[in-house]
Amino acid sequence: MFKKVLAKFGKGASTVDLRFENRSYSAGETLHGEAWIQGGEVEQKMNSLTARLMMNVVTKQDSITREVATVPLKGAYTILPKEPKVISFSYDIPRDLPISRGGVSYYFDTHLDIESGVDRTDFDRLVIEAPKEVQNIFYALNRLRFQEKSTSGKLDEYGQEFSFFPRELFVNEVDEVEIRLAYEESGIRIWMEVDCRTRHGEMEVKREFFIEQDVLKESRQIANILKEYITEMVNDPHAYTQPFSYQTQQNYAHAHQSGQGRTPITGMVGGLAVGILGGMLLNELMDGLGVDEMVEEATEELGIVEEESFLGGFFGDSDDE
Q1: How does the average pLDDT of the chain come out, rounded?
Q2: CB atoms within 10 A of CB 267
Q3: pLDDT tops 90 at residue 166
């Protein structure tokens, strides 16, 4: 009897531990794992067992957490004293989730609902990286000696934007390259904005193009394409000043809908954040400077080069060679 009383207050009660392979997972990949339940000192009735995937986004003023998905693991059942139980599960990570970056992170919140007792929880971090095709685009930029910035991976009303700065090639012609990506049936569409240095100051030039699936398998081929396109943009910046197609599509859709929200661009990397976070929160993300941006501005004012203030990026030494 005394053990039952203690169990109701959590002492000697059942516990839960969510387990999956300790590695990064790619957006679009299926995660396989197990929930390990260990019975306590007394028999207890469990109402439910669920795991919620949570996304945390750091803004200028706060840290915002939203639920991405709920994975039901087990319905009501009774667990005996000291009884071990293992429940297998799988979860398909959405391909258009934002990729983990400095301001975007994920974790599983596992909740064991115990009838007439203290519920048990378990928290497990999850790192979501880019699929192989997107990684190869990043590797291609690395081949051209571009380095991902500490502020890369910011979210806005369209999705996720990745930014890079030149270290060798283009260092005298380009300040920054920003890209957005969208999955299509036979490849990836890329929107690339290059901040070019001209005699009249900095100029933002824009180019939209598509890379076929076969080409996306080799970062060397992608690098050749990117080098050619960036060179053309640098040599004739005035030829690349039209708005991106996703911006004109969104502006048209926004003008013809009664609500304040935006419709996500199909297949856009990070586009699922539009639905998870909502328009008002995304506006907050866009309006203020985050911590990384304030650091970046301060270093620019002090004349410190980007390489010295870099806080870490995507690239390692691996490639598709």
Answers
A1: 83
A2: 16
A3: yes
In this structure, the answer to whether residues 71 and 209 fall within a common structural domain is no
Whole-angstrom distance, CA of residue 122 vs CA of residue 174: 47
Alpha carbon distance 321, 319 (integer Å): 5
Q: Looking at the structure, do residues 118 and 185 belong to the same domain, yes or no?
A: no
Q: Are residues 112 and 87 in the same domain?
A: yes
Numbers of helices and strands, H then E, in the chain: 8, 16
Has residue 72 got a pLDDT over 60?
yes
User: What CA–CA distance (Å, rounded) separates 310 from 292?
Assistant: 10
Judge contact between 43 and 1, C-beta under 8 A. Answer: no
What is the largest distance, in Å, between two alpha-carbon atoms of the chain? 84
Position 290 scores a pLDDT of 45
Label residue 176 exposed, middle or buried (CB < 10 Å: 0-12, 13-18, 19+): middle
- Domain end point (choices 96, 129, 162): 129
pLDDT at 261 exceeding the cut of 80: no
How far is Cα 287 from Cα 304, in angstroms, rounded to an integer?
A: 25
- Give the number of domains in the chain: 2
